[in-house]
Amino acid sequence: MTTTFKDILETLPATDGIAAIVLLDAAGETLTRLENKPGTAGSVRVYHALIKKHSHINRAAAQEGLQLYAEHTADARLHPGKHPSIDRLLAIAEDGAPGLRARIVLQDN
After folding, report:
1. What is the Cα–Cα distance from 94 to 89, expressed in whole angstroms?
2. Residue 108 and residue 54: Cα distance in Å, rounded?
3. How far apart are CA 45 and CA 42, in angstroms?
4. Which residue from 77, 88, 74 is spatially nearest to 25, judged by alpha carbons?
5. Which of 2, 17, 85, 102 has the fewest CB atoms in 10 Å of its CB?
6. HSE (CB half, 13 Å, CA atoms) of 107?
7. CB-based burial of residue 19 (10 Å sphere; 0-12 exposed, 13-18 middle, 19+ buried)?
8. For the chain, first and last CA: distance in Å?
């Protein structure tokens, strides 16, 4: 039986209390912000797990992330631009793009 993205998400650390993850380039400039809301919450969970393990998104983290996205990685390869969070990981893992740093934004209470 193939493990799906939904199955994998359930095994990743919870992201309760996280509002967003801001991805930064090597100079510390903001590239994008992944909001912890429907539509991008899964990506927040994947990137959060990668950051917890690797501290930043380097080639090894990107390769692991592509495995975590499971069936969505193949879809991203077939449809560039459809899955920007996966496209970023593909660029780092397979095209030699520079890694990313991240800042976790906590929710205000």
Report:
1. 8
2. 26
3. 5
4. 88
5. 2
6. 9
7. middle
8. 41
Angstrom distance (rounded) from CA 12 to CA 41: 12
User: Which residues are bridge partners to 73 per DSSP?
Assistant: none
Each of the 109 residues of the chain gets a pLDDT tens digit; together they read 689 999 999 999 999 999 999 999 989 999 999 999 999 999 999 999 999 999 999 999 999 999 999 999 999 999 999 999 999 999 999 999 999 999 999 998 6
pTM of structure: 0.95
Q: Report the alpha-carbon distance of residue 15 to residue 4 in Å, rounded.
A: 19
Where helices occur in 10-80 by DSSP H, the ranges are 41-54, 59-68, 71-78
